[in-house]
Automatic annotation (TrEMBL):
<keyword id="KW-0732">Signal</keyword>
<dbReference type="InterPro" id="IPR007110">
    <property type="entry name" value="Ig-like_dom"/>
</dbReference>
<feature type="signal peptide">
    <location>
        <begin position="1"/>
        <end position="25"/>
    </location>
</feature>
<protein>
    <recommendedName>
        <fullName>Ig-like domain-containing protein</fullName>
    </recommendedName>
</protein>
<feature type="domain" description="Ig-like">
    <location>
        <begin position="61"/>
        <end position="152"/>
    </location>
</feature>
Length: 281
């Protein structure tokens, strides 16, 4: 009885066995050895990124944020996720990139390499804030993060007339809600001229621009709605035929919202007057 097995057949067995396991599962080709205490150590590390250099202002509806990060890991490839934080005091929440390109480079002898490119179209003001990516290992929960990039999405998202009452001969009002970043400048264009928030002009008075509030439940507390403002115009005596519109400016954007157009009778009266005067001249 011999203690040692003949070596050539044993090598064959090992070779065949490892070939089978390679074919049977992708795991073995994406696994290299590591240790908890000595080098090479198990874990994940940031290897490269494109984050900070894309920080700045992005146009609402037109901007495209293009960020990427790459990590090394042992023993297995890490999984990369993208996180957003609206303000520096809020918590990080996963978000969905407009499009994403993930890559894994496997190795049986060295570190695994994972990378992710995230393209985000800045279609909402609430995409303002900080972004980062995170690499995580399922095995031991070890993590690594990229640096953060901070962006601001600027422009006018919406101008809405929330409520109004414009009955000729009585007192009227218009309530408007504007969502814009940065805080917009607004003017009411009235029959008497332009009225700014906080101003009074003969027949018109405007409230100050205030943060729009929202309630999760009717009897719950109200909290300010990010990037949204509210303003109210009081019309002392609504005159028939007066036109009224709201002008909004934020960043480079300007918007005009017609609230009351001049009545047809006034237009026809004016055109008749014009025709008559041209005939007389
Ligand atoms: C994102 O940026 C990289 C590097 O600058 C570039 O190669 C890639 O084409 C960009 N992707 C898009 C969709 O703009
Ligand atoms: C961001 O704003 C859009 C449009 O107002 C809204 O549909 C979306 O739910 C908001 N997202 C978050 C995370 O608040």
């Amino acid at each position: 009885f011999q203690e040692t097995l003949p070596s050539p057949p044993m090598r064959h067995i090992i070779l065949i066995f490892s070939l089978i396991s390679l074919v049977a599962s992708d795991e073995s080709s994406c696994t290299s050895s590591c240790s908890k205490t000595s080098i090479p150590q198990c874990g994940t590390w940031l290897s490269s990124e494109r984050m900070k250099e894309v920080g700045g202002l992005y146009e609402l509806g037109e901007g495209v944020m293009n960020v990427s990060c790459a990590f090394s890991s042992l023993p297995r490839p890490s999984s990369i996720s993208w996180l957003h934080r609206p303000t520096s005091t809020s918590s990080w929440i996963p978000f969905t990139c407009s499009s994403k390109d993930d890559n894994i480079k496997c190795s049986t002898t060295a570190e695994q390499k994972t990378s992710s490119t995230c393209i985000l179209r800045t279609s909402f003001l609430n995409m303002t804030g900080s972004y980062k990516c995170e690499s995580k290992m399922d095995i031991d929960d070890s993590k690594a993060s990229s640096s953060e990039v901070t962006i601001s999405v600027v422009g006018i998202e919406s101008v809405e007339i929330m409520d109004k009452s414009m009955k000729p001969g009585s007192t009227g009002f218009v309530e408007a809600k504007i969502c814009a970043n940065p805080q917009p400048e607004i003017w009411w264009s009235t029959g008497d001229g332009l009225v700014k928030p906080g101003q009074t002009l003969t027949n018109f008075a405007s409230s100050h621009l205030a943060k729009s509030m929202e309630r999760a439940s009717p009897d719950g507390p109200a909290s300010p709605l990010a990037y949204c403002y509210q303003v109210r115009l009081i019309v002392n005596n609504v005159r028939k035929g007066d036109s009224l519109s709201l002008l909004v400016r934020s960043h480079d954007g300007v918007s005009t919202t017609r609230i009351v157009s001049s009545s047809h009778t006034l237009y026809s009266f004016l055109s008749i007057l014009l025709i008559c005067s041209s005939l007389l001249l």
